[in-house]
Design brief:
Radius of gyration: 22 Å
Number of helices: 15
Strand content: 5-15%
CATH architecture of the largest domain: 3-Layer(aba) Sandwich
Structural class: alpha/beta
CATH topology of the largest domain: Rossmann fold
Largest sheet: 7 strands, parallel
Number of domains: 2
Strand order of the largest sheet: 8-7-6-9-10-11-12
CATH class of the largest domain: Alpha Beta
């Protein structure tokens, strides 16, 4: 079985060493961003591509790989894979759905608490010798407990559900939006209420973004959405940067239309220092918290992802259907 890996070899050596030593697999590694001609020159006959979740797998590459049967995201996201080309060629696309749900849920709550408790600014002020001054100021300004917040989950997949489970222990009021409303039993299980998107914006003290990147979700958090938010509310994004309209959110932050934001991810990635949501005026900076897209990359989530990914490789090798197929209408090659 010939396999092309587009991604970091070190991760595979750490999380799936048994697969790398399997004599049934002939594996060729290339870093993300390698030119297409280089991929084809050494791995054009591969039957499987294992791709970093933010590595592009364009239709032109798919067209040039006649033996290709499976493209597998190393993560949950698969928006960098040309799904139309895969469908047309009968190539299955799989992801590692759910593998990082617990990890990203933890990161989501971390960012909520970091914003509410001014964690970044507080760290800076203590280091500068201003501990008491900041403490006195925050007692006057006020600190909101997470448990008193109404939280709107924009998207309701595995990560949003894991987040809801954890937020329930804080006593938060939870709403969710998804293109298709969930069953009454599911809503009860997660103690959430459905709200249309703009109603969710108006209800929430914290909007937590959990939508997958699709043609309809790109830019979903836009000027019209933000205009319906409370001035005291803030946005947390641990999904994908493409869900947010960068210019609209920048304008809202500078104008004080919302209280702030916390990001685990921004678009584009890698994120440049002059990004419109990073290079903000000094008056805004303490109202925004950043993390370098760490939410889903825990040791445990990578172990789960690689275990699932190589199990799917084995299924393909033995003529079986893999799990977590995201393009079930494709007619798989045999």
């Amino acid at each position: 079985m010939n396999i092309l890996v587009i991604g970091n070899r070190d991760r595979y050596e750490k999380f799936s060493p048994e697969a790398l030593s399997n004599p049934a697999y002939e594996i060729t590694f290339f870093p993300r961003g390698t030119a297409e001609d280089a991929l084809i020159s050494r791995a054009g006959g591969a039957e499987i591509i294992l791709a970093d979740a933010i590595a592009a797998v364009p239709g032109t590459l798919i067209e040039r790989m006649p033996r290709l049967r499976l493209i597998h995201s190393e993560g949950v996201a698969y928006d960098k894979i040309d799904m139309r080309a895969a469908d047309e060629k009968g190539i299955l696309v799989c992801n590692n759905r759910g593998c990082n749900a617990a990890a990203v849920a933890e990161q989501t709550i971390l960012l909520m608490l970091a914003w509410l408790r001014s964690a970044v600014a507080g760290d800076r002020e203590v280091r500068a010798g201003n501990q008491i001054a900041m403490k006195e100021r925050k007692m006057v300004e006020g600190i909101t407990e997470l448990g008193s917040c109404t939280i709107g989950l924009a998207g309701f997949g595995d990560i949003a559900k894991a987040t809801a489970e954890r937020l329930n222990s804080f006593g938060c009021r939870l709403y969710y939006y998804a293109p298709h409303r969930r069953s009454v039993d599911e809503e009860r299980a997660y103690r959430v209420r459905y709200a249309p998107l703009y109603e969710l914006a108006a209800l929430s003290d914290i909007v937590s973004v959990h939508a997958a990147v699709t043609d309809t979700s790109r830019g979903m958090i836009n000027a019209a959405f933000i205009a319906r938010m409370k001035q005291t509310a803030f946005i947390v994004n641990t999904a994908r940067g493409e869900i947010i309209d960068n210019a609209a959110l920048r304008d809202a932050l500078i104008a004080g239309k919302i209280a702030g934001a916390a990001f685990d991810c921004l678009y584009p990635e890698p994120t440049p220092g002059d990004h419109p949501l990073v290079d903000l005026p000094a008056s805004v900076r303490d109202r925004v918290v950043y993390a370098p897209h760490l939410g889903g990359i825990t040791t445990e989530s990578f172990r789960r992802a690689h275990k699932n990914m190589w199990a799917n490789v084995d299924r393909i090798a033995h003529g079986k259907d893999p799990v977590n197929i995201v393009n079930r209408d494709a007619r798989p090659r045999r």
